[in-house]
């Protein structure tokens, strides 16, 4: 088993990409069920954590910018760790993310084995 | 009541109190002497009561005799007295003759101190349970062996090893300090929870014994609920959980000791008083900022006290299971969650999710799949139930599965 980082990126800046309160509400249950399903397989390493909408971006010459984005529009909406045997399995789990429907992007990264 | 009926009953309720009070006074190093004095007290009662009949106040009689025996023991054994002097001064007023304080308050304090001593992390969990049953609940070694389906020798060893360990580590029996409560409460609650589960899910066919185990776990948890320093939200949550579970005890098995499934239980056998108590303590638990697994399990158990299937009930149960699994994985919670998922999101989705669990060495896994396939594909359901049967161990589980299978073949 390997550990994978699942990062959910969402467009938090442009108005048209922000889900409506109804959409948000409707996505809570599927999201909880999705995470519950991962936990039920004993594949949840670290549960999801909510992140604020602020954030800072630090650049080469010590400039610090407000906002959670660097060049792109999407920024981190949620982040958690799961267990899976390989990328195929981790991707299969990530495909279940119900927020994909609302235009989110899920990034999957495998943890490097510790030396 | 005759002496031969009353004595075993008093032994169960008073033995543990006297032992706790004496250990509290003497310290854990002298645990055997404490037990000797109390056993001796009951021996005297057996002799005296069978000759002269019951005294007017049997409990008072036991307390007086125990006090005298303690005093004599201390006087007779000067070496013991010298060794004890330092500790006795610790707990008793200096210069006064030792008097055994058997007030309700001191009995409660002593038992509370003993719970925290027995649940010291220096001894293993299974030993803690055996020792708790022996010292705090007054169960005999044979009874404990019956409850754990093992031999007297195993339990005897377990209890003695635990006592030795406590002595070696020089654990002080005292009122838990705030920091000790914070550090050790979790272990204490685990022990009490395991004690309760041992009674509730026990494979032992001895029903009166199983009920006693649950009752003792509840009594000890109630001691913690009643003491203001230990009455934390998490303790109230555990007590609520026990109340809700215990409320269905009578309905869970028939006279032959066979398991009756939830949906077939006779609701009129559910204990409404315990349900009300559970609700009260669950409300008490709803303060503070920390959500424990006991809160979530109590919440699930609360919804199970509503027999009718409503979408609200199963949606709540599913979300509580989701949350529970995020906090702490357990195969049983995973299977129960999948059952709740079938009730809310439909059987097809639940089957897909169930098959991901791959708990292929667990007979509950196959009986869940059997249940989910029933009426969708009865042949598949049958295959699953047969796999479950091959894995089932207890005769009660096997009987239940055979009944289900015969209903499937011949509806």
TrEMBL record, chain A:
Database matches in Gene3D superfamilies: Dimeric alpha+beta barrel
Domain of life: Bacteria
YCII-related domain span: 63-109
Matching SUPFAM superfamilies: Dimeric alpha+beta barrel (SSF54909)
InterPro entries reported for this sequence: Dimeric_a/b-barrel, YCII
A Pfam family reported for this protein in Swiss-Prot or TrEMBL: YCII
Family statement drawn from the similarity comment of this UniProt entry: Belongs to the YciI family.
Protein name: Transcription initiation protein
UniProtKB/TrEMBL annotation, chain B:
GO biological process, one term: DNA-templated transcription initiation
Sequence ranges assigned to domain DUF6596 in this UniProt record: 184-285
Molecular function (Gene Ontology), one example: DNA-binding transcription factor activity
Highest taxon in the source lineage: Bacteria
Domain RNA polymerase sigma-70 region: 10-77
InterPro entries xref list: DUF6596, RNA_pol_sigma70_r2, RNA_pol_sigma_r2, RNA_pol_sigma_r3/r4-like
Chain coiled-coil ranges: none
Protein's name according to its UniProt entry: RNA polymerase subunit sigma
Species per Swiss-Prot/TrEMBL record: Spirosoma endbachense
Organism lineage string: Bacteria, Pseudomonadati, Bacteroidota, Cytophagia, Cytophagales
